[in-house]
Design goal:
CATH topology of the domain at 28-79: Ferric Hydroxamate Uptake Protein, Chain A, domain 1
Structural class: mainly beta
CATH superfamily of the domain at 28-79: LCCL-like domain
Signal peptide: 1-24
Number of helices: 1
CATH class of the domain at 28-79: Mainly Beta
Domain LCCL: 28-80
InterPro entries: LCCL, LCCL_sf
Distance between the termini: 17 Å
Strand order of the largest sheet: 1-2
Radius of gyration: 17 Å
Order of helices and strands: EEEEEEH
Pfam families: LCCL (PF03815)
Oligomer: single chain
Keywords: Signal
Length: 80
């Protein structure tokens, strides 16, 4: 992901402009729990928002790079 720094004249502030999410066409991410599995989301592609503070020792993750649908989505993201 590339970002561009644009100086705001006279304000001493820089803005970081990031491109929109790829493939989501502006859709809002789906808020999920720490233990939501791939099977629990009925879409082929989805942007998700994992909560902070998930207990790492309780994730069920099966796979490496490609993960089984029974894996925790947030756990697979942390593992990757």
């Amino acid at each position: 992901m590339s970002a561009a720094w644009i100086p705001a004249l006279g304000l001493g502030v820089c803005l970081l402009l990031l491109p929109g999410p790829a493939g989501s066409e502006g859709a809002a991410p789906i808020a999920i729990t720490c233990f939501t599995r791939g099977l629990d989301i009925r879409k082929e592609k989805a942007d998700v928002l994992c909560p902070g503070g998930c207990p790492l020792e309780e994730f069920s993750v099966y796979g490496n790079i490609v993960y089984a649908s029974v894996s925790s989505i947030c756990g697979a993201a942390v593992h990757r």
